[in-house]
Design brief:
4-stranded antiparallel sheet, 0% helix, Jelly Rolls, mainly beta
Length: 109
């Protein structure tokens, strides 16, 4: 496979779901993007926090998570995406055992 291509099959399997606080694994960290997979047990949550200095895309990989921004809940199910601009306050809660992918986007020059 050429150096310019990175294949990431079955990334959710890299992060087991364990009781307690969600935990993550950086799957890819390259120019322009970092991809992190978070594993959440049902009921686990990340309290309100800000997105980093650049925008991000969240994608539900498995399960169901609720993302709260400015008091509004958005439910993400497998295949759903949510875009957040830089510095947006948000919280995330797993409604069931879940995996969430985060694409952290770097400025393009």
């Amino acid at each position: 496979m050429p150096d310019q291509v990175t294949s990431l099959p079955a990334v959710a399997s890299l992060v087991p779901i364990e009781p307690g606080k969600p935990h993550g694994h950086t799957v890819l960290d390259t120019d322009g993007v970092r991809f992190v997979v978070l594993g959440f047990a049902a009921g686990a949550a990340l309290t309100e926090h800000r997105t980093p200095k650049n925008p991000l895309l969240m994608q539900a990989l498995a399960g169901e998570v609720t993302v709260t921004v400015a008091g509004q809940d958005t439910v993400l199910r497998p295949g759903d995406f949510l875009h957040l601009d830089a510095g947006v306050l948000h919280a995330v809660r797993a409604d069931v055992d879940s995996h969430l992918g985060l694409l952290l986007l770097n400025s393009a020059g």
